[in-house]
Write a structure and sequence with these properties.
Elements lengths: L1 E3 L2 E3 L11 H4 L2 E6 L9 H17 L4 E4 L13 H9 L6 E4 L2 E2 L5 H14 L4 E6 L4 H6 L7 H16 L4 E4 L4 E5 L11 E5 L4 H10 L2 E5 L15 H16 L6 E9 L3 H21 L10 H14 L2 E4 L1 H15 L3 E6 L6 H19 L4 H12 L1 H10 L2
Parallel strand pairs: 3-4, 3-14, 4-5, 5-7, 6-7, 7-10, 10-11, 11-12, 12-13, 12-14
Antiparallel strand pairs: 1-2, 8-9
Helix pairs in contact: 2-12, 3-4, 4-6, 7-8, 9-10, 11-12
Length: 397
C-alpha cells in the first residue's frame, strides 16, 4: 500500500496522484485596490471596475475585495460599500469584501450598520475587511490623529464586533462615543466575517488573537521593495509570520487571506517586459512623487527591483505551469486554510487585465487544483494501448 498526503491507495504501475487536502481547502479571490490612473476618466475607470467585478463573478472566483482611499489623485474609490451595493443585483454568487474600511475614519456604529445593510442587500455575501488606514493625508483631512491610530482602531473594532454580535454598547473613548447603541438588523444567514489588514508583526498577531479576527496580508506590497534586493527572501519571511500567527491562534484552523500578484506570460522575462511600463509608472508617479516614498527613479532601478521580485517568487510571473507550481508551493508553505487573493493593481490596459483574470481562472487555478489530471491520464492510458486496440477493432469488422 502507498500513502500519499495521508490517503491510502493500492500500488500500481504508476502512482495515483492524490491532491493534497490543503489545496482543496484553498479558495480564490481578486483584490481591486482603489487606484485609478489619473490620466483616465474617473467615470470610465469606475465602469472598468464594474465590468471586472462582473467578470470575476462569472469566472467563479470565491470573493472580491474593493479598497478605500480618499486622496492622492489616484485613489478615487472612496466608498467600497456603495460600489458593493451597486454590484449586489448584478452578481449571483461571489462574496464581497471591503478591502479595507479604515475604522478610524468612520464612526463604528455607522460601520456596523452599513455592513449589516450590505449583508441584506447581497443576501449574506459580505465580508467586513478593516484596517487602520495608510495615507496620512486621508487622516489629516478629517482630523484623525496618526499618532493614536492603532489605539483608535482597536477601540473601534471592539465596538463594531460587539454591535455585530447583537450587544448594546455604551462607551466613551477619546475618539468617539456610543450611547445605548444597538443595531436594528441581524445577519441574513451567518455571522459577519471580520478580516483585518495585517503585517503579522507581534503586536498585530496579538490584536488578531485577542479579537478573534483573521488576517489579510500581502506577500509584498504593490511597489515591492524600496530598493532591489532590500528584502531578499520575502516568501520565507511571510511563511514564518503566518506560522507564528497560526500557533498563537491555536493551530491551522484560522483562514488567512494572502494577496499575491500573478501575471501569465510566455516566460518570466517576457512578463517583466509587459509589466514594467505600468508598474514603474505607478511606482514613480504615486508612491514616489505623491506619497513621498524614497524610491530611486531610474529605469534601471525599476527594472532591477521588478526582476528581483519575480526571481524571488514574490511576484508570480511566467507560463501556466510555472505559475501553478509557484502557487502550489506557496499554499503548501502557508498551510491551510488559505484564500489566495489575486492583486489587480492596474498596471495593464483594461482589456489586458480582463484577459489576465480570465486566464488565471481558466488555466492557472484548474492546473493548481489538478483539474487537467484526469483528462491527461485518460489520454496517456488510451494512447498507450492504441496499437493493440486498433488491431482489436480491425478484427471486429
Amino acid at each position: 500500500m502507498t500513502v500519499l498526503h495521508g490517503v491510502v491507495c493500492p500500488q500500481s504501475r504508476r502512482p495515483r496522484v492524490v491532491r493534497c487536502r490543503i489545496m482543496y481547502s484553498t479558495e480564490f479571490g481578486c483584490f481591486l485596490p482603489p487606484l485609478h490612473d489619473p490620466t483616465v476618466s474617473p467615470y470610465a475607470a469606475l465602469q472598468h471596475d464594474i465590468e471586472l467585478c462582473g467578470l470575476v463573478d462569472d469566472l467563479g472566483f470565491d470573493e472580491i475585495w474593493l479598497g478605500e482611499h480618499h486622496s492622492s489623485g489616484w485613489s478615487t474609490l472612496s466608498a467600497p460599500d456603495l460600489l458593493i451595493a451597486a454590484l449586489a443585483r448584478e452578481t449571483r454568487r461571489i462574496r464581497f469584501a471591503t478591502g479595507v474600511i479604515p475604522l478610524p475614519y468612520h464612526h463604528p456604529v455607522h460601520i456596523a450598520e452599513r455592513i449589516l445593510l450590505l449583508d441584506h442587500l447581497t443576501a449574506g455575501r459580505v465580508i467586513l475587511g478593516c484596517g487602520t488606514g495608510t495615507y496620512v493625508h486621508d487622516m489629516e483631512m478629517i482630523g484623525v490623529d496618526a499618532g493614536s491610530l492603532r489605539a483608535h482602531f482597536r477601540a473601534a473594532l471592539e465596538v463594531v464586533q460587539a454591535l455585530l454580535d447583537g450587544q448594546v454598547v455604551d462607551v466613551t473613548t477619546p475618539w468617539f462615543t456610543a450611547k445605548r447603541a444597538v443595531l436594528q438588523l441581524r445577519p441574513v444567514r451567518r455571522p459577519i466575517e471580520t478580516v483585518v489588514a495585517s503585517s503579522l508583526g507581534e503586536e498585530a498577531i496579538d490584536l488578531l488573537t485577542a479579537t478573534g479576527t483573521t488576517p489579510t496580508v500581502h506577500v509584498v506590497p504593490p511597489w515591492g521593495a524600496v530598493r532591489p534586493g532590500l528584502d531578499a527572501d520575502p516568501l520565507s519571511s511571510l511563511v514564518q509570520r503566518v506560522a507564528t500567527y497560526r500557533n498563537k491562534a491555536g493551530g491551522t484552523a484560522a483562514r488567512i487571506r494572502c494577496n499575491v500578484f500573478v501575471h501569465l506570460a510566455d516566460s518570466a522575462a517576457r512578463g517583466v517586459d509587459e509589466l514594467l511600463p505600468g508598474w514603474s509608472a505607478q511606482r514613480r508617479d504615486l508612491y514616489r512623487n505623491i506619497l513621498g516614498m524614497p524610491i530611486p527613479d531610474s529605469p534601471a532601478a525599476h527594472r532591477r527591483t521588478l526582476e528581483s521580485l519575480v526571481d524571488s517568487g514574490a511576484f508570480v510571473v511566467g507560463d501556466t505551469a510555472a505559475c501553478a507550481r509557484q502557487i502550489r508551493e506557496l499554499v503548501g508553505s502557508l498551510g491551510g486554510p488559505v484564500t489566495l487573493v489575486f492583486l489587480v493593481p492596474g498596471w495593464l490596459t483594461h482589456r489586458a487585465t480582463l484577459d489576465q483574470v480570465t486566464a488565471i481562472a481558466n488555466e492557472v487555478i484548474p492546473t493548481v487544483l489538478g483539474g487537467f489530471e484526469g483528462t491527461a491520464e485518460s489520454i496517456r492510458l488510451t494512447s498507450a494501448e492504441a496499437g493493440r486496440q486498433m488491431k482489436r477493432r480491425a478484427a471486429l469488422r
